[in-house]
Design brief:
GO terms for molecular function: transferase activity. The chain is an alpha/beta fold. The protein is 40% helix and 11% strand.
């Protein structure tokens, strides 16, 4: 975590120069106050940018994301801000942590190491995501592996749950 905190502090000027918005998603309850301060600082300093968006996940899990979205919706309903009839997929999308992005649902998820599971990552958002499982470890996922992945993805026929 100290490397992440150092990144947040040292790269603000780079991120601003290149107009990169930074968002950090995940359970912030177990993050140190020092790191939380750095996260808030980099998010605040870059919040106005729109063209590039770096989303970093710390202590993120899909189950936690869905759970916190449900709790937010339940509280809004309890407080009279929502009616049960208002609850739909779009509302849940808006309550998930990835709502900070213009494109919260990934088109492609690359899971290195050959493991064929999504490991509690973007459970709701991955409903129509293409999943790619290369047999290389993350440090070995180089340009050649990336090109293989993109070639594979280009050959996919995206149906988004529909039969053709």
């Amino acid at each position: 975590m100290s490397k992440f905190e150092k990144f947040c502090k040292s790269e603000i000027s780079y991120l601003q120069r290149h107009k990169v918005k930074v968002s950090v998603i995940g359970n912030r309850a177990n993050i140190s106050e020092s790191l939380l301060g750095s996260i808030r600082e980099v998010e605040e300093a870059t919040k106005s940018y729109e063209d590039r968006h770096l989303i970093m996940a710390i202590d993120y899990s899909g189950r936690f994301d869905i759970l916190q979205a449900c709790k937010n919706i339940a509280n809004k309903t309890k407080n009279g801000l929502l009616q049960v009839e208002d609850i739909d997929q779009d509302l849940i999308d808006k309550e998930l942590m990835t709502s900070c992005s213009k494109f919260p649902n990934p088109d492609l998820l690359i899971r290195t190491s050959g493991e064929q599971r999504i490991s509690n990552f973007f459970l709701w958002q991955s409903a129509y995501t293409e999943l790619y499982f290369p047999n290389v470890l993350w440090p070995d996922f180089d340009k050649a592996e990336c090109l293989k992945c993109l070639t594979w993805y280009q050959q996919r026929e995206r149906r988004f749950g529909q039969r053709l």
